[in-house]
Amino acid sequence: MIRITRIAAVALALVAGQSAWADKLPLNTISAYLNDLKTAEGTFAQINDDGSTSSGKLYIKRPGKMRFEYNPPDSALVVASSNAVYIADSKSNQRPETYPLRRTPLSLILARNVNLSAANMVVGHSFDGTATVVTAQDPENPEYGSIQMKFTGNPVQLRQWVIKDNGGGETTVVLGELKTGGTLSNRLFDEPRPNRD
User: Fold this and answer.
1) What CATH fold (topology level) applies to the domain 25-189?
2) Which pLDDT does position 101 carry in this prediction?
3) Residue 14: pLDDT band by 50, 70, 90 thresholds?
4) Judging by beta carbons within 10 Å of its beta carbon (0-12, 13-18, 19+), is residue 111 exposed, middle or buried?
C-alpha cells in the first residue's frame, strides 16, 4: 500500500510538472504575438524603485513608438519615438531629458522584428503558475539592463514588465486590459514640447 501511494505521488508530481510545462508559452509564440501587436492602448500602474506608485494611460504603436501619460498629481510624460526616449514634465518649460531608445530594454519589444530566440537575448524563460515569464536583454549590450515580461495565454497577452537598469534599479509596469488593433495618430508620439505658459 505504501509503495502504491509513493508511485501515485510521483505520478501526480510528473503530471503536475507536465501541466506547468504545457502552460509555458514558447518563445516563438511570444515573438509572433509581439510582432502582430501593431497598436495598443490601455491603463497601467507603475511601481517605482523607491516603492512609490503612479498610474496613467499607455499607448503603443509598433515599431518604435510608446507613450506614457501619468495621472495627477504626477505631471510626467514619457514618449518613445524617432529612436529616442523623451522624459518630460508637462508643467515645466524645460526641454525633455532625451536618451537613445536602443540603450533601453524597451527597444526589445518595440523593435520592428522581435526574435526572442536570437542568441543570448533571453536569459530567463519560466512559468510562475499563472503566466509565462521571459527575461530578455540586448545580447550585444547587457549593460543596458533587462526587461522581464509576463504573458498569459488563451489568447496571448502582455500583462506586466519589469525594467532593471544597470544600477540595480527596478521599475514595474502592470498593464490593465489592452485595446489592440485601433488607429493611433503619430502626433501622440511627437517629442514633448516645453510648456510656455
Assistant:
1) outer membrane lipoprotein receptor (LolB), chain A (2.50.20)
2) 92
3) very low
4) middle
